[in-house]
Design a protein that fits this description.
This protein has 421 residues and is an all-beta fold. It contains one helix and 32 strands. The strands form eight sheets. Strands 1-32-31-30 form a four-stranded antiparallel beta sheet, with no helix packed on it.
Length: 421
């Protein structure tokens, strides 16, 4: 493995002491839920009720809690922020009152491992974003430790330890796919280049396996569920392909090659209703149609935009466009035509190595790893910025939660609530 991969994936700092909450804020109304990776619909869309009527002039800290290192994004359910972190060799799950910043409960467990020797500057995770559903919080750690927690009390309900089925020596990020709920089952993706990959459907109440698919080792992307041709499908990336599985039974329906010499398939695929959008740093952004002829399914590539590759940042789709951060030109924002892949607009570059991309009814939001929170107008002929803020106390590599005029934000050193002024 080449050392340049670890440089591109970014450096993080470890913190070993909890900082006290610096401020508190009384909530006027209960915080809406943001229960999983990329939000309620898993597509980066912020519900209209969570979007401010007018964007604030600035943000000020309301509270802050040091929770350790990691790339996992915070989620919100039932008025609590849940965040998964690490103080090596422990992984930590913390529940925080969203209004006051008070830590309600915290659990930890041993999760030591030796990562890829070239990823020396990277934190050891966790990488997967938790999932809140049915009064439970599900966390999948970097070592493949899957745990179901009681959201109210923090009591462990069940766990599945998949660490013995993962070889970490060639993985740069460990287990990374965020859990998904589909067909009433918990979907997780685990594995490695050496052991191969598995997609599992589990009973959320017990952790028992309902079905299992085995194939190529995983990429670092998270799976999605989409109804295609009338069939609910789990769509995900392996280290060398895109696959579609029957969500009810786990049977493989179709696959298409999506190779990467370093197995860095990181970007979550997107189903637009007509096209499946995937992107990678060496494959560019691509669109596929997925169709069934008789009993046979197929995925056919309809366009490829090699000049607009997305390395770690998952885009959003609206207005007939794909809005994202291409890793070319040291990072540049781009809008691609969803039907053809043609460029609608781009920025000059040097925007950053990463951006979380979110969608509101009127805006596209970009949060870069350099702490720039950018609110741009949708549907414009060029990059049209309405507001730009500096947020966070350290680099930011996780998806924020918009709570009206407030933000819940995780950076490299902790999780904060910022109050709009």
């Amino acid at each position: 493995m080449a050392a340049h991969r670890s440089i591109r994936l970014a450096a993080f700092l470890s913190f070993t002491v909890f900082m006290p909450v610096t401020a508190s804020m009384a909530a006027q109304t209960p915080a809406p839920d943001w229960p999983q990776w990329r939000g309620p619909s898993r597509d980066g869309s912020i519900p209209a009720a969570q979007v401010p009527a007018a964007w604030p002039e600035s943000y000020a800290p309301a509270w802050r809690v040091d929770i350790g290192e990691g790339f996992s994004s915070p989620i919100i359910a039932a008025g609590r922020v849940f965040v998964h972190s690490r103080r090596d060799p422990q992984e930590i799950v913390t529940a925080i009152d969203v209004a006051s910043g008070k830590v309600i409960w915290q659990q930890q467990y041993a999760a030591g491992y030796q990562k890829n020797q070239y990823a020396v500057k990277m934190a050891k995770g966790p990488n997967a974003t938790p999932l809140a559903a049915g009064g439970r919080v599900f966390t999948l750690g970097a070592t493949g430790m899957l745990v179901a927690w009681d959201a109210a009390t923090g009591k462990e309900i069940w766990r599945q330890d998949y660490s013995k089925q993962i070889d970490f020596s060639k993985l740069f990020c460990g287990t990374s796919a965020s859990p998904l709920l589909a067909q009433g089952r918990l979907i997780v993706q685990i594995g490695s280049d050496v052991h191969g990959g598995r997609v599992l459907a589990l009973d959320p109440a017990t952790g028992a396996t309902a079905w299992e698919w085995k194939g190529a080792g995983p990429g670092y992307a998270s799976p999605l569920v989409a109804t295609i041709g009338g069939v609910a499908q789990i769509v995900t990336l392996t280290n060398s392909s895109i696959v579609g599985l029957d969500a009810a039974k786990g049977a493989p329906l179709w696959s298409a090659p999506f190779t990467d010499e370093w197995h860095e398939n990181i970007v979550t695929p997107i189903w637009t209703g007509t096209h499946l959008i995937v992107s990678g740093t060496r494959q560019g952004t691509q669109a596929y149609t997925v169709a069934r002829t008789g009993a046979a399914w197929s995925a056919t590539r309809v366009w490829q935009a090699t000049a607009s590759s997305m390395y770690m940042s998952t885009p959003v789709v609206a207005d007939g466009a794909i809005y994202g951060l291409s890793d070319k030109r040291r990072g540049h924002f781009v809008a691609l035509d969803v039907a053809t892949g043609a460029v609608r607009w781009t920025t000059e570059g040097r925007e950053g190595e990463y951006a979380s991309v979110l969608l509101t009814p009127k805006h596209v939001i970009f949060l870069t790893n350099a702490n720039r929170f950018i609110v741009a107008r949708r549907g414009a002929a060029s990059f049209d910025v309405e507001k730009t803020y500096t947020v966070g106390q350290a680099e930011t590599w996780s998806v924020p939660v918009v709570l009206g005029r407030d933000l819940v934000l995780r950076d490299a050193t902790g999780v904060s609530r910022l109050s709009g002024r």
